[in-house]
Design brief:
The model has no long low-confidence stretch (mean pLDDT 82). The chain is globular. It has helices at 7-30, 36-49, 63-82, 85-102, 109-131. The protein is mainly α. The longest helix has 24 residues, at 7-30. It has one domain.
Length: 135
């Protein structure tokens, strides 16, 4: 009799695939056979996924985890769909080798720059359009 994997095991497997695909996109960014649109999306997704800080900090109730649970997996899924199968297969092998060797995803300092730039832009827009008109 086959036992079905528990929900926890299914979630762990899904999270492992997301982590692997985030690293896969890191290698796809460097692959010359990755189409421009896919590469551009990969750069943004990788910068955010591998950034040590989040766009919405995790301590913010509910919203803090939405980017990790919904936004990031959706962006990874979309980027993976834009990469040709052969390139994707090569990059997945590279990602599996990297994770087996290093034990973690690579860190990306451009992710920090990206997240900080978004927060600076949001802060400026808030000041410009919500606060400054009252002064």
């Amino acid at each position: 009799m086959d036992q079905q994997p528990s929900r926890t095991e299914q979630l762990r497997a899904w999270a492992g695939k997301i982590k692997r695909d985030a690293v896969t996109l890191w290698f796809a960014c460097k692959n010359p056979k990755t189409p421009f649109l896919a590469k551009a999306l990969c750069v943004l997704v990788v910068a955010y996924a591998l950034s040590p800080i989040d766009l919405i900090p995790d301590f913010v109730p509910v919203l803090g985890y939405l980017d990790d649970v919904i936004l990031l997996p959706c962006l990874i899924w979309l980027a993976v769909r834009l990469i040709p199968e052969r390139v994707l297969a090569q990059c997945r092998v590279q990602a599996d080798e990297w994770i087996a060797k290093e034990g973690h995803a690579p860190k990306d300092k451009w992710g920090v720059v990206f997240v900080l730039a978004v927060w600076i832009l949001v802060s400026w827009l808030t000041w410009r359009y919500a606060v400054a008109p009252f002064f």
